[in-house]
Amino acid sequence: MKKLALILGLVSVLFAMVGRSVWADDCSLSVEAGDTLAYNLTSMSAPASCESVTVTLTHTGKMAANVMGHNWVLAKDADVNGVAMDGLTAGAGAGYLKADDSRILAATGLIGGGETSSVTFSTAGMVGSAMTFFCTFPGHSYVMKGKFSID
Ligand SMILES: [Cu+2]
């Protein structure tokens, strides 16, 4: 019995090592939001070795994008309120994002229940920068946000 336990232990360690080196992709991040004003993560990060990062947002709820829409927008901490306010002015037709806003470092589409949207962006200049991800749907950014870092 002791031998069996030892073998099982070794096998699980091997699986963990293989999983880390082969299947894990540190440069691709997933985040979810449902029919409440919350992401399932309060902080996200990727290693500086990633030249680009892909973030995939999945809306796990049932409500439509015009009622409980979510996006995943990245900006420096100091720019969050400005981006959100200008997004509100831009309106639903613009996905609550001001066009050509250089403060927006990355943004997925605005999605409703059951939908998924991804964005891939360069990490150039992001190392050590204090960034926040948030949702620009009206009223959401006050609570729907988290920390993002490249380190
Ligand atoms: Cu939202």
Protein described:
- The strands form 2 sheets. The chain has a 5-stranded mixed beta sheet, with no helix packed on it. It has a 3-stranded mixed beta sheet with strand order 1-3-6, with no helix packed on it.
- The chain is α/β, with parallel strands linked by helices and 151 residues long.
- The protein has one domain (25-150): Immunoglobulin-like, CATH 2.60.40.
- The protein contains 3 helices and 8 strands.
- The chain has helices at residues 2-23, 65-68, 80-90; strands at residues 28-33, 43-46, 52-59, 73-76, 106-107, 116-122, 131-134, 145-150.
- Bound molecules: copper (II) ion.
- Copper (II) ion is lined by residues 70, 135, 137, 140, 144.
Short description:
This protein has 151 residues and is of the alpha/beta class.
Please render the helix and strand layout as text.
Elements: H1 2-23, E1 28-33, E2 43-46, E3 52-59, H2 65-68, E4 73-76, H3 80-90, E5 106-107, E6 116-122, E7 131-134, E8 145-150
Residues 70, 135, 137, 140, 144 line the site of copper (II) ion (CU).
- The low-pLDDT segments are 13-24
Output the strand order for the largest sheet: 2-8-7-4-5
Mean pLDDT: 89
- Count of extended strands: 8
Question: Can you count the helices?
Answer: 3
CATH architecture: Sandwich
Look at the structure and name the CATH superfamily: Cupredoxins -  blue copper proteins
Give the distance, in angstroms, between the N- and C-terminal Cα atoms.
44 Å
Which radius of gyration do the C-alpha atoms yield? 19 Å
The tally of structural domains comes to: 1
Order of H and E elements: HEEEHEHEEEE
Largest sheet: 5 strands, mixed
